[in-house]
User: Fold these one by one.
Assistant:
Number 1:
Amino acid sequence: MKLVNKSRLHILVFVLFILSSMHVKAQELYVSSEPASIMPARSFLIQQGYSKMTGKEHFDNINTKIEFSFSKKWMAHLGTNYKSWEWYTQYRFYSKDALYEHLRMAFFLKSINSAETAIYTNAILLDGQESVFHSGIIVTKLKHKWAGSLSVGPIIKRESLAENGAVGMQYSFSNGILLYPKMYRSYGQTNVNLYLEFIGQRLFSGKANYLDVAPAIQFIFNSQAKLNLSYRFPLVNNTNRTTYNLAAISLDYLFFNAFPKLK
Amino acid sequence: MRYLIIPIFFFLSTSATAQVQSVELVASGLTCSMCSKAIFKSLSRLDFVSEVKVDIEKSSYILTFKSRDRVSIEEIREAVYDTGFAIETMQMTANFPNTKAVNEELVSLNGYQFKWKLAGVKNIANPQKVSIVNKEIQPTAGVYYLNF
């Protein structure tokens, strides 16, 4: 097993541990994954991003995403990096709320449609370098200081060489906290959130697997616009991926009550 | 004389009709200001709401109304649940027609049927703050239960 960047993870876990022991609130507006929570009913989000993938090769991507919710339980997004496009839809089937806490569960379907193929890569690439189907279940727990989210589900490479294995399991584990402000006083306060997310993949046939970590910092302006900065890199990498580091920046804006309510 | 009659008339009219003056609710399931703003926007959008005062830290929202004749509990509830969150507590400040609250006694307020749910009899000090105690603020057989 090839372990990389372990010391960087130790630092991150230590920082997160120190921060979580302070007076903080949990946050689940994850940068590298989706929580089980749905955006407010009939709202609309537009996101513009730039990412740089590095490794043995490197690519630059410009990403655009629009996201909308049809109801409090059902949302969808369309995204493109101008080489591939994807659709995603998520349905929240369980929700239990209490003061400053909730437990939510959702099901999602995702399709990445690319003109390119990565048939000689023994991992399934979700960054637009090939066409992929992905579905799964998300469970998100928010409780005062801690917001954790788990997602797991099958992933299918749509064009592959059989020996490389076309079907696998994708999973993620995300954590988030509010760093600033200590006390909310107005919607105009800039919020700073810190995230630590783990993203992993294991193929059913063949031995390819990886576990990446993606720390992120997020600034929220006017409780409506988000600036996300993240850097994803592998902790364990038993694949022949040619790009495995991802630096990303994105800005998004949420429009509340963008659509009229259907009677 | 005219200056005397008007206040007397005003006093009689407010004490004789039962009306909701304001609603205070605490939303549950959130810790983020963006989530709080979603609820604030959703409540502010209701056509009968004149003002929403928010305490983000406590997730509490105080609603006042354009006219005390039109207040919809269902629409307030729906506005919060539509954002994906829930209501922990909902309180109303209202003028009641009676001076005493008796357990299981019916009260009519803004076209709604309420019933007191309390141990024995309590004195009402108008305007009185009361809590709706129905689970998830949904009426039980058309009736909201009140406590204070």
Number 2:
Amino acid sequence: MAKTDFLTADMTRRQFMKISGKSLAGLTLSASMLSLFGCSQKQVDSGAVATWALPQGLLVVNADLCTGCQRCEINCTLTNDGVCSSYISRVKIQRRLNLDGAGNGLLSGNDNCFVYFPDTCRQCEDPACGNACPQKAITTNAQGIRVVDTDKCIGCGACHEACPWHMPTVNPETGKSSKCIACGACVAGCPSGALSIVDWDAVTSAAQAAYMDL
Amino acid sequence: MAEYYGWAGKILRVDLTTGEITTQDDAKYHKYIGGMGMAYRIMYEEAPMDLDPYDEKAQVIFGVGPLTGAGVPCSGRMNVTFRSTWSKGSSIIDAHMGGHIGPMLKYAGWDGIVITGISEKPVYLRIEDDEVSLEDASDIWGKGTFASNKWMVEQNGREFETASIGPAGENLVDYSTLNTSFGNSGGAGLGAAMGNKKLKGLAIRGTGSVKVADPKKVLELSNYMMGNLIGGNNNHNVPAQPQSWAEYSATSGKNRWSGAPGRMWKKAPGGPVDTGEQPYNDINKIALRCFKGYFDFGAPAAEYTVKNGGCSSCPIRCYTEYDVDPLADYDLPTHNSNTCMPVLYGTRVYPDGVHDFKYEGDGTMVINLAWSHAVDDMGLWDNYGNLNRDLLWILRMPREEATKYISEEEYDSLPWAWEKAGDPRWEVELIRRMAYGEGDLSVIAKGTLAMMEKFGLPKSWLDRTDGATNSNLMYNGFPNHHGPAEAWQVGMLYNLVYNRDCMIHEIVCETGSGAPYEVTKKVMEDFFGEGCYDKAKAYTPINENKAKLAAYCVNDKNFHDSATLCNWMWPMTQSPSKERAYHGDLDLQADFMTAVTGETYTQAGLQEAGERITQMLRAMTAISFQKNCGSANLRQEHDAICDWVFDKEPDFKAFEEGTTKLDRADMEKAKDLFYDIFGWDKTTGVPTRETLEKFDLGDMADDLEARGIYDQTPAGETAASEAAAQ
């Protein structure tokens, strides 16, 4: 990437969208960038840190900091559903706590016992959930966030099936898809700072500063 | 079923004899809150204390409450009520579990599970929302809890939370647990209560929700609590080490708010995580406050720490998660985690001491973590250290003395070379023998009272002043747990109430907080009245406010185990906020009850609800003592205090500076005040008819009367008059 890739927040976001879906492993980050993300280069190298380019900023997930308390799920559902639940949460940690299907989790009985972290919606540029929806109920709002039109949603679960990470979930009590709207409640209430959203202007400034240093 | 806020509205009933599974609306139990309170009422009505604890009709009742799974911080608890097989009177008793399974039960739509009957073959209970079934557990019967929980998740899917008993429970070892998550367990013999029923475990998945009346208010109160009131583990309200934002740090330099700059999770996969400073109003750093490993073991803990863990909903992460790699040299699991007794007492079974393994000073830690994994895997309980104390008592004897109690053959079969070498396989072998009931020594895991009977030890064995091998406050088979050494007469009084250790943390959370004494004293006296809060090792005679504080603690704890809230964190007594003059907010739990349920609660109302449970406990204890001990005079039979409490530290008199010993006559006066507050007869300690009727428990009064308990004449002079005569 060149310095000119980071002239505006929008350009920065597009650069980060290219690496969304992967951990940051392999990238060397500047000191200011590491400080902004609240992580170390070693955490980046180990794959503990993943980032997702959301419209309002860069979502940073630091697996080493996640302590499995489920407050992200609690804050998500109290904020968006007016109830408290794990299953319909738009951020999902419970399903990774015990056995995550990839050899991690408290009951794995191996060296990855204590590897668990929340899955988050990626707000994909080319959203599988939206593409799969037979009702075209998942659309992009003015802020660039992909949201469910509950008037159109018939709760068929196509979004859940199509998402590679099965993040949208049909709420069995309402029959509507509960897809992340990037409200930030999970981040605001995370007691360990395992989840954070870094404003695009700040990421852009840090990226530019890094190139100035070169 | 009617729909409620807070409560799921229904309980599950499972008869293991017939396999019948039914559903019951639970509205009639809501005045008992849930959890412990609901279970006490159900057991009183349906499975009288006359039953043998292992009778087919005996119940094991899993209970959660309106706050469980409702998003309230520190509410991830589940209470389990059953009958004691090891403490005096075989009375009603509870186990208390954290982890994630309690909230999951709520999400599945249940406030509780009432288990009766005995299955013919090993089964586990599978709950997926309204689909409930008994499933074959023969593949995991005999296996440890870690493998069993893993198997149940593999069988059913990763969104299931599970709990399993281990070999100890299967073999009806009285000291046994039910284990969930990683190191979270409920003890008190729950493993055997389930093992007797051939119920190996639970697997629960809930796709539903807990309805809350005012979700915005729940979020607002949560943020208020997390930004203003909550401290570290045990709600310690100042950091252990100085932090730039904090006026105070712990006067001793040590408490459970033990995260600090330079204190690292060194084995995090991405390299060391510095726990750093955690300003009291920074919600996003709360999980870094407690570094329980550092509190327990000091600097060596950092070398082995991966991260923190704990229970659902709680921002305070009191479980340190370790990779103790030296244990690999002994073919023992290296990934271990626990927060409480399992990581504190393993070294007690090494009378010759332990040695360092990899880092200077890490010996205690490595040995204790090996103990932790082994007891959790076997599902073995330690009765708050009595297992370890009783083992130490015999293991440190010369061979000729020890073989008066266990056979020479058994003594010589113990791998003593491992003990001498400080080898962790020694403790693992002892634990295995306990869990499988092997040999004379394993009577220790049947309970201190069973051991005393088998070994022919007199009652006065419990009066000894050797704290390393005796901390029994009373003659009932369970030890001191936050008693008078931390909470003067208050700690002694609240220990009198239960049929196991009290599990009350209301006072130790304050005395251990690390704040200067005068700061905490001001908070406590503002809340509970003048003279209620003694200084460490400078006790004063009993007064009414102390007795009231003790009663408050009992009722508050009973509410917590019913709601459910974690009693290590709640209530919010102190605050880390200088602006609040370090005062917490005792009304917050009532405010949460109101916001969640939509019904109006006050702190006074919660005390009343908690006291209703206290009165049920006391009445049911009287019934079981009449049946099993021949007398329902609880003052004499249940509440008698061991001599060492008054006789230890002979160079001191009670109330002199420098001792925590109590005074006999003062303590009898304290009982008088305490009984008076609770409306218990001063001679017998039994709730009067008037008292029970005040709590709508007139049927219990009728029962006590029909059983002749109100007619009983004390066998002799009361302890109070004896003491007065001295």
